[in-house]
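User: Sequence recovery, please. Input:
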């Protein structure tokens, strides 16, 4: 696992947008797994700016969703489908045909989950999966004690996550209890995992995920199993890392030819 400590969220967004741009230059039809929440927004802003300036051609990119609320009416502005279309797909000038996600309004949720795992595989697999981390260590909506081998399935949100996400809704009670999320096993199939964490509130979860034991109670620790996982953190989110000095030295001495 590589840990890159950046000065702030904007620098983290720029670094990851550069990585995505390099991927799209190498593989124009790459499948990009995107995350919702506040943390990845600087990535999407930086990537949209690169696309607008002509620095990268994103016209053949494909975008897929990590997780989704269950039970929100179709078109609800806070459904993750709506959020990803609004924050990622449209700003990149892409159409809905470039986008895939699980159906949180399906009558048969279990079938919709299995269908999404199949669709990801049929699409050739995710090339780069962007991840956030919950204050409880979740990735996607894999809450603590999610199976490290899990596939896309329904999960119940913790009180903490519902509270963390209440800011997006008119009232805390409106945050759905249930979600569909790519499983940890599904996420681990992406070719490159890039986790971005910013702010002091994420410091403990980051330290446990990066330096703690591999444990289902900290779902993000599953990144330790992946051969190409990059954790990008700002100074505040890095503040709990015992090996911060080593991570800084390693990144500073990195050969120019070696990307994250
Ligand atoms: P946040 O969410 O970026 O809004 O903090 C992260 C997550 O829950 O994965």
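Assistant: Recovered sequence (260 residues):
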């Amino acid at each position: 696992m590589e840990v890159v400590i950046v000065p702030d969220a904007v620098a983290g967004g720029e670094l990851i947008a550069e990585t995505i741009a390099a991927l799209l230059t190498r593989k124009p039809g790459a499948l990009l797994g995107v995350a919702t929440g506040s943390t990845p927004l600087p990535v999407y802003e930086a990537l949209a700016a690169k696309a607008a300036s002509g620095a990268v051609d994103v016209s053949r990119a494909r975008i897929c969703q990590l997780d989704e609320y269950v039970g929100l009416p179709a078109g609800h502005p806070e459904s993750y489908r709506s959020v990803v279309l609004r924050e990622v797909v449209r700003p990149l000038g892409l159409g809905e045909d470039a986008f895939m996600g699980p159906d949180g309004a399906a009558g048969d949720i279990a079938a919709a989950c299995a269908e999404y795992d199949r669709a990801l595989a049929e699409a050739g697999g995710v090339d780069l999966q962007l991840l956030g981390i919950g204050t409880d260590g979740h990735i996607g909506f894999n809450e603590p004690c999610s199976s490290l081998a899990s596939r896309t399935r329904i999960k119940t949100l913790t009180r903490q996550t519902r509270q963390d996400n209440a800011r997006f809704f008119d009232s805390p009670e409106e945050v759905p209890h249930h979600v569909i999320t790519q499983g940890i096993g599904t996420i681990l199939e992406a070719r490159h995992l890039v986790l971005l964490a910013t702010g002091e509130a994420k410091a403990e979860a980051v330290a446990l995920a990066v330096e703690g034991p591999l444990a289902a109670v900290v779902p993000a620790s599953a990144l330790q199993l992946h051969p190409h996982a990059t954790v990008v953190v700002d100074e505040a989110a890095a503040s709990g890392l015992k090996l911060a000095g080593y991570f800084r030295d390693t990144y500073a001495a990195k050969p120019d030819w070696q990307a994250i």
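The chain is about 30% helix and 15% strand.
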